[in-house]
Prior knowledge:
The chain is mostly helical. It has a domain at about 45-170 and about 235-340. About 80% of the residues lie in helices and about 0% in strands. Helix 4 packs across helix 5 and helix 6 (about 105-115) packs antiparallel against helix 7. About 35% of the residues are buried.
Amino acid sequence: MKTWKKIFKSYAFNITLVVLFTGLVLWLTLKDNYKEILEMILNANVGWLITVPLLAIFYQVIIGWILRKLTLLSNPKYKLSQGVINAFVASFFHGVTPSASGGQFAQIYIFKKQGVRVSDSASILWMDFIIYQTTMVASVFILILLRFTYFYQHYSQFFLLVLIGFLINGAIIVGLWALATFPKIYTWISTKGILIGVKLHIVKDKEKSLANLDIQLQRFASETKKLKGHRKTIVQVVIANFIRLLVYYSIPYFCALALNIPVDMNFLLDILALSSFVSMINCFIPIPGASGGTEATFILMFSTIFGSVGASSIMLLWRFITYYFVMILGGLTFIYAKAKPDLVE
């Protein structure tokens, strides 16, 4: 059993999974319309084609800027270049681990090499998580409200999954706020809630679950107190996260422009919403990089706007740039960062 666990957790195994699922998706995507799709890609607009990877890089730079702003609270000499390196490394490890579970461990390692104490890096990542999760839930909520009727009518088979994904992501941050703010809710969860989980075999180890709950709440309460004392930084980071999400959700729009697919600004809101919905459904896919499910969901979602061939073509370009291209840059960045000497804390 331990041998199998080691295999499933190994990067080689996870990368192999990504390659296999990618190959399967490519075959399914190209098998019926490969001539039209390849022709569309080969005749792409060079200017817009260059813009797409630049947007993906800009997205990572924004994350790096956010990490720098939060790190400056405890490490005044932290540079933007260090934050960008950390962001790219995190993207690589998020991409090669199931459910993006390895990114934060890699970030703590890079922070340590950059002279940031482990306790400070854990604090930074918690603050980043709190602000990003809150901003992401708020942005998706706005998009759902703006286009609820249209998408419920046209995507009823997927919209339930989107709403469940939204509720799960929202429940994480709302639940932490509620537990930290209302003692009665914490008391119920720490007694009856966990006991119910044990009876339903959802919770295996009662004492360990209680200990983990206490640790998470202590960290959450500690970081929220820190954030309250830095309102200007909070506002700046919230705005940066909204821009970050806007950039990421808009990439399919620029992919369509690059592939000479007719699209105007009237489609932009729908594209932003659909992109956010794909991200919501991804939370159900535990495979590294959500490979397979992401591509299939993207095509099914976007085919009503662009048709099967158009959606497939956009997906190939979008997925390559936002996942594989960024993973390659992230892997190279990790090699570079690992080779650099550690800075003194």
